[in-house]
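Tokens help. Consider this.
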Amino acid sequence: MPKYIPPEQPKAMQVFDIVFIVVAIFVALWLPLKLGLAGVSKAIDKIENPTWESLGQNPTMVGFWEKLGYNPATAHDIIQNKFHYTWDITTLLVMVVVVVGYFIFLFRASDKEYREVIDEKFGDKK
């Protein structure tokens, strides 16, 4: 049986692949921020005249806050800066369609490439 030699990709296409992947990663990370889909639920829950107790801090936590130079008023924005997680059915369904569509594409493309490699290695047995 002859040794399998995979097809070689030209250098220009390797560079194109690298640039494409870097751009795809950048867009995947940047686009949700630009569209306001990431971090939009972050909000500060205001407490008037905050105390350590109203901020939910125990004596150990208070000790560490004070070692860092904070008092209840200055620590308020840090402690109360929280994400309020909300979702809606439309966003959930879009996400499900995208993930399922990606896996269908992935399995079909992998199956096609797998069959091409088998045909290259062993020939068409029909």
